[in-house]
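Practice problem: predict the structure.
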Amino acid sequence: MKTSHFLKLLTATAVIIGFTFTSCKKDKKEEEPDKDTVAASDNSYVENLSNDIDNIGDQAGNSQTGGSLSTYKLINPQNSILSTCATITLFKADSLNVDSVLVDFGTTNCVCNDGKIRNGQLLYTYSGGKHYRDSGIVITCTPINYNVEGNQVSGNRTITNKGRINGNFNWEINANITVIKANNGGTVTWNCTRTKILLNTSTVYSGPANPINWPQAKIGITGSANGTTAAGNAYTVTVTNQLVRDFTCTPNTAQPHRHPFIQGSMEFAPSGKPIRYIDFGSGTCDLNATVTINGVSHPIVL
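Answer:
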């Protein structure tokens, strides 16, 4: 009888211990640190696509004859993001105003000078001027069957030249971009209100008759953005310290036209998760950044 009572007590104790051990394992699993940086990467990728649209439009707008880009150059061919397999068509209502510019990368894959593969078209519509550098100009870009590295890009991006502040060109940027990622990778949306500053205007701009020397440019970005990741999660982004991109900085010689942010910070807030604090450094030319989540820093390579 005593033996039976003892066995029952032992069994009950084993169950309690087992339950406690299982609960501890579950708690430990739930307490694993949040290291997810995929959402931040989605935002960074679309932001770079959007910035490229600006550069392509400015370079194309400086072409006065259109046609094949085999004869088009900003300073020399390798300094253009564009490629010889792209063509530029200018549509003019009169001799003083360029109403729109169509950049056509063709229907098959075109390897551009920045190493990215593109096809499709970008249509730029101008008002209030004909160059990115003209004060007061408003440029709206609409992608048409446009793909970058197999990712389908749609939406629109509007750039307004706000003149100069402290001697430097300022642009207001509003964008609504959707990217359908290749290989069923999901859909990313990105909406932004940003200010772009040409930090070394006096060095890379020599007057209205000449284009901005973008290969030597240094730009600053401030403002906010929001959207959804490829996994369908909402997020917001706020620049907390001006982001800086230096076009003379090429950390990877195998990709000479890749110029990442090298300075500044921002807060990336994915829905239902802690804020990610992203720090691009203090100006060193590299591909390194840091993502801090719940006080724990994770180094990443851009």
